[in-house]
Amino acid sequence: MSDRRSCRRSGTSRFGDVNANLKIAVPQIHENGGNGVDRSNGGPPARLTKADLQKRFRWDEFLAEKAITAVAFVSLAAIVLIFVFVFREAAPILAPAKHSTQETVQAPTEEEESYGDEALGEGARKLEQQSASKTSVENSGSEGEATWSNLLSVSWQPVGNQPKYGLWPLIVGSLKVTVIALLVAAPLAILAALFTSSFAPRWSREYIKPAIELLAGFPSVVVGFFALVTLATLMQDLFGYQYRLNVLLGGIAMALAVIPIVYTVAEDALMAVPKFMTEASLALGATRWQTALFVTLPAATPGVFAAVLLGFGRAFGETMIVLMATGNAALFSWSFIEPVRTMSATIGAEMAEVVFGETHYHVLFFIGAVLFVFTFVLNAIAEVFIRQRLLKRFRGAS
């Protein structure tokens, strides 16, 4: 009993000492000006005032923020100006001017006598000059016409008395090369990303990923030159087709440039899959391959699909590789072993030789506008409809 009483007495005395110390400490904090620091004994901060919470102005942060904002606006303005310039130069094709052939009414001239094939006097010469001038005016009028029926034809012959600006050979050629490039690049890149994210040891992943991504830094002209000199001969000897440069060669060469893009984005998407999903699959008895194919890959499908879309845009807009490896012949054919010409290669090959302001000049800019619109619409449809549906399907969204 005595021990309990002594403990109670000591406890009350201790609590009394604590209360006394608190009563002494609070006035000391107020005496220090309310800055939250007890200067007498160096204690921790007690409270923060409104002045302490205000953001301090710093010139370095202000200048960095304004510089980043300016760069962003300049980049956006440059992109908008490029689009405006392209569509402005292509506007004459959308609203072509009417060309009319002028026929001059001339007074009848006296034909001078002639013996055999020799004409006497200046009358015959004037008649020949007038007929030649009339023919040139009519040809110039036909050259200036780029109607929709001409643009939707299947012949691309921009040079001649009756130029033809059919876009179908260029559109079909671009699609054929892009499809082959994706059929070759997408499976290889996705499987490589699946291997490095799920099976490769950490030390090997540190070497494999930079080695594949290094291929994206190769200039397009180097890849095209490799396809033109080395790969074309090997493939012709292997398959035995007639044309050395064709769609198949261009698609395979294009796949070399598409693989790093698809691999990088797909690998990041696969690495972002939560670990508990793979661990739960392994805990239920699934093998590593089953987990990778049926758990990790479906969970990362939206990111993998975005990687394929980026690869499609890269292949569809490529210029130098298809210009050097596809034969650059505007043929309307569905064969994959014949030469072909793409829209981007047409712009790159003919823009330097065209006369400023002519119909051919505006048609090339119209091709650039079609290329932009086609890529934008396809990516928008894929993003809005397909990718969102994939997100709902694989992530269980309502």
Question: Could you explain how this protein is built, in words?
Answer:
The protein has 398 residues and is an all-alpha fold. The chain has two domains: 2-53, no CATH class; 168-395, MetI-like fold (Orthogonal Bundle), CATH 1.10.3720. Helix content is 68%, strand content 2%. The chain contains 15 helices and four strands. Helix 6 runs antiparallel to helix 12 (301-316) and helix 8 packs across helix 9.
Uncertain segments: 7-16, 18-37, 99-121, 132-144
The average pLDDT score comes to: 77
Tell me the major beta sheet.
2 strands, antiparallel
Helix content: 55-70%
Number of strands: 4
What string gives the helices and strands in order? HHHEEHHEEHHHHHHHHHH
Number of helices: 15
CATH homology superfamily of the largest domain: MetI-like
